[in-house]
Queue: 2 jobs
Job 1
Amino acid sequence: MITVRAPGKLFIAGEYAVVEPGNPSVLVAVDRFVRVELTPSVGKGSIHSEQYGRQPLVWYRDARGIVLDHDMRPVDYILSSIETVEQYVSERAIAPRFYDLSVSSELDDVSGRKFGLGSSAAVTVATINALNQFYDLQLTPRQRYKLAMLATIAVSPHASGGDLAASTFGGWIAYSAPDRIQVLRLREARGVAGAMDADWDGFSVRRLTPPSELQLIVGWTGEPASTSRLVDDLRDRRWAEEIRYSDFLEQSRHDVEGLIASLDADDAEGVKRAIKGARRTLSQLDAAAKVGIETPALARLSDTAEAIGAAGKSSGAGGGDCGVVLASHDADLSGLLREWERSDIRHLALAVHPSEGGL
Ligand code: MEV
């Protein structure tokens, strides 16, 4: 049996703007994981995951490729990951085989509510890592990220893939997304392996050094958020309300580049300034678009951080889920944590998952 795991992630800055190819963001991987166990099987394969309920999803192969044993085809990252790797395997003339996958996640609480730590990305990366071992493909982290990106955009063409990069490479990273239209066309024209070999416009990923004088504190609002709903709403309103989107992109780039420069210089004050700037930039966007990025709970989470000289903001799409705080190691957190408890914000004790290498 093969057992692998992939970590969850948090956005530190650059959300929404990162959806546009080439716009920078900063993310971090955290030490909570999605696990995938793979057992070889014969004649058919299966996927056991809570998302399918008690019944596993059973799959076979026919001339069309992977087929399911029932009509309902879920919109699904695991299946898309399998199909993408299987296409790669077939292009490389490797004999296809069957396997059972079993998925378990630490990225939700005991009652199954998601924390918003990028579970779809982590399950995609973990599935690809398991198949990389099973078929002995010896893919580098960059190639695995590219496979994960191909699998993801087949399901969700607008996703930036920042969460995939954090989950693949670990640690702190600076990330900008590829042009997904180009990537989809590459897959169509050259197959999966050909698309992976090509350069992707806009894509870049770079290792960052964590700020030595700051700690990361994560608060979970307990409010479930839908990234696709928020991103779609923003896209609709952007046109309807003539939001000055290019100003937002420029401001976000300014904040994130400031953050990256401060991380490179290990300048704690600069890091906090950039995070506060990124919070303001998202608020200005939301004041025009009104999609509800910074909910009242996320505003409280960030205000209590600023009140103790730290910096805090929503992480990811906002609308609920988590917020991040960067505070100096000697900051007095007792008041902040008391205020969070009063506001039903749960402190998630997460450490940064270290670099997996490959960058
Ligand atoms: C969601 O976690 C972050 C967004 O920037 C969307 C994405 O990056 O795909 C809002």
Job 2
Amino acid sequence: PVPNVALSDGNSIPQIGFGVWQVPDDECFTAVTSALTIGYRSIDTAAIYGNEVGTGRAIAAAGVPRDELFVTTKLWNSADRPWTRDRVLAEFDTSLDRLGLDYVDLYLIHWPRPMREDYRTIWQAFTELQADGRARSIGVSNFQPAQLRTIIADTGVAPVINQIEVHPDFAQAELRAVHKELGIVTEAWSPLGQGRGLLDDPTLTRIALERDRTAAQVVLRWHLQIGNVAIPKSVTPHRIRQNLEIFDFELDAAEIEAIEALDTANRLGGDPATFDVG
Ligand code: A2P
């Protein structure tokens, strides 16, 4: 079983989840079905991924009791303003319909910047969704420290999670320290560095060889040991399985330190300070 991480609202989230970014809707059914069969209990999707329908169909078909699942989706931050309370609630309903669910475990604001100051209105509406139980937990994604502090000051409600890009060569130590101060869990997107060059790094491949693991498993183990929740994505069944087989070994202090030395601030995705949509 996958260990859970406690959230500040009293709920908890499996420390490894299955991410479906860039998985087309028709493939998503197969991928999520594999993940649920292999033992994943947390699935991370988003309205903009276009695969909430496939995700929901796989959830329905798998027959896992709803209360054993943790389903995350995200509000798309169209720059088409203004964002009002009612519009947020309508977007949420549409996501629930597509998923075929009557609640989600976690609802996130996807990116803060395209909505400009409207992210504050959106967060107010999120607190209503949580109060009526349809979003059991509420959080954000790609938020910067000032934005986190603003929504907390506005509402007194802290996001339980900030889902951000983190991998060993983009370790985000400063932002993670802010999260710790504010009681926010760090959830890592692209935790494997998108499976690109990072997994061939000599330090990681050396540790992997010594531990009889893969570089991907070593990276995921690093996430666990620094307290992150991680949502690796794969459409390959043996990798989906491998990415969950990380609870029976531990990196030692020297290995963690060696991995920490890999940080080159190598951002692969959008920069929250500038990320915009038309
Ligand atoms: P694929 O989906 O073809 O299996 P991230 O989660 O950081 O965005 O990384 C996702 C990318 O990493 C995907 O291209 C995925 O490929 C690849 N990947 C996922 N798990 C592994 C693994 N265990 N070993 C190697 N590559 C992996």
